Amino acid sequence: MKILLINFLTISLLTCNTLIAEESGIITHTWELQEISLHAEQTYDNYYTDVTCWVNLKGPDFSKKVYGFWDGENTYKVRIVATKPGQWSWTSGSNQPDDKGLNGKTGRFTAIEWTDEEISENPNRRGFVCATPNGHALQYADGTPFFMVGDTWLAGTTWRMPFRNTTTNKDYVPAPGIGFEDAVQYRKSQGYNSVSMIASFPNWDADMNPSTYADENGIYVRNAWEKFGYFTKDSSLTAKDMRDEFGNLPFKMSDEHPGVADFNRIIPAYFQSLDKKMQYLSDQGFVPLLETVRRDMCPTWKAYFDFNETYARYVQYLISRYGAYNFLFSGIHLDWIPKEYSLTADEFNEALTYHLKKYGPLPFGQIHTTLINNSTYLQFGHGDNCPWLTMHSVGNKPRDHRVGEAIETLFNLKPPYPAINFEPYYTGWHHEINPPSGEHPPVNSERDNYFSRAQMYGSVLSGGLSGHVHGTAAYDITSTGEPAGERPHIWDALKYKSANYMKYLKDFILSESTKYQELKPATQYIHPQKAPESMDMGLDGWSYMMQTSDKKLALLYFENKAVLPELSNFKPNKEYTFQWYDPITGVWKDKMDIKSDNMGRIKVPDFPDQAEKKMRDWAAKIIEN
């Protein structure tokens, strides 16, 4: 039997160049996904649970076991990349030593570098994203900065944003009938390089059960987003359906427990649909955040299954299937931790630590993080407390000034990890707990978009140097043919003004190239940092500053209603250049020469329009001459 080494071409989605593994002269590129197909010769009761297969992959400075995944019938696949140019080889193995179709197969290939021109066409050819040497930011494998400019499409893995294998017009404007490629191209034109998606929603369907309900044993089956306009027999709203474009669920449903997925019976066809989206994102230079499941799937998962074992198997299935892509992996979407609708953070930590001990870390070095309620440090701890976690985050609750304080805490942890706000203020979403200042501004209004912008700059300039993830009320992807209800249609939300500010944020932070990676929080050197009567639970009146240790660079942000401050901790009697930046338009104002006094203090020049400042925000940069 011949084993095929399939090279996914980046110029055409899922177009395969089939190469025979034993053939000499096989050449591929570094960081280019390749796929090894193995076919079991024996029969198994459950191909998902009974078989674990892998290849031992060897190459320059690399020798690791890379796990495969079941892809239907008797087929198993192992996806790999070459991390460096040179000679590579692999040998297959499995936990079924007598199966000749899975064990002892071998292959060899040569990896070459991409040309500079090819790299310019797709930044993913620079290698997978990892932490910078100082631990505070992200970079591609070749050292080029990666500043995440992300959007939140949590249900983007499903039919709600269908993959159509079509070309999007360059002047496309979101409208009913939007497809996955359309949305990606629209955000790409705005400077985005990432989207956040949950891989599957196993217990969610428009099945005439309420969106939130418990089974006959009192175990909550789900706490789902409502499908507006679709009612159950008791007039409550049912859940949003989360199948793929062909009607596939991610798992078969349990015969024993109605409404509950059988987490021992995965459906590969669902993930074959997701493959197309992940490949398309890769081809477009995106580095997505891929999450396992939402926390409300897990009360029944733990009640009726061996949770640590089956959850670890699912985590590894996703890593095996998508671990040869440039992505960030989230072990759980833990946006909220209610007693009835979720397991505890400790239970998830235990399961993810179990996974790490059984399968090891992601084989090609990608980040393992999680979307969180408040702070990963607060929920999981740091270092040995959660050995699987390699990047910290904040999010969801709260969505005000307290987020900045949580991020600064993350920045100061030892050893340092990258940090980010994965779930900040969502434009247009006004039914959350503790909205900033208790306000619910009109959707897409100046005030609504300002809150989003203030979270962007406040989060990054508190120490979230990994980037930022934008969000809107359409995170659920209310799609074509559905009433919007309390959440807008995705094509409307994509056009909110707040999305435009993300590119300007990146331009501001990277305006001095990689020097932003050396910045440290320095709010203590702003006098005053808070305007009188400004609230911790608001987003008005605060100022932020990060500064390099050598005091040659500082980046600042002044919220709406901030007080014009004096700054300290600069070099005494030193000439600096001060420049205002407009976060609404992305335009720099004229440079100004300023000088610190003999105590290293700087008086901030007047805001560009002192009268206008009362109703808006500004950013600024200070550079030593």
Uncertain regions spanning at least 5 consecutive residues:
1-20
CATH class of the largest domain: Alpha Beta
State the CATH architecture of the largest domain.
Answer: Alpha-Beta Barrel
Fraction of residues in β-strands: 25-35%
Number of strands: 37
Number of helices: 11
Radius of gyration: 25 Å
Largest sheet: 7 strands, antiparallel
**Structural class by secondary-structure content:** alpha+beta
Helical content (DSSP H or I, runs of 4+): 10-25%
Distance between the termini: 68 Å
Shape: globular
Average residue-wise pLDDT: 94
Could you name the CATH topology of the largest domain?
A: TIM Barrel
Count structural domains. 3
CATH homolog superfamily of the largest domain: Glycosidases
How would you explain this protein's 3D organization?
The chain has 625 residues and is of the alpha+beta class. It has three domains: 4-127, Immunoglobulins (Immunoglobulin-like, Sandwich), CATH 2.60.40.10; 162-512, TIM Barrel (Alpha-Beta Barrel); 517-624, Immunoglobulin-like (Sandwich), CATH 2.60.40. The protein is built from eleven helices and 37 strands. Strands 28, 30, 31, 33, 34, 35 and 37 form a seven-stranded antiparallel sheet that branches. The chain has a six-stranded parallel sheet with strand order 23-22-21-14-13-27. A hairpin with a 7-residue loop joins strand 19 (251-253) and strand 20 (261-266). Helix 5 crosses helix 6 and helix 8 (401-411) packs parallel to helix 9. It is globular, with a radius of gyration of 25 Å.
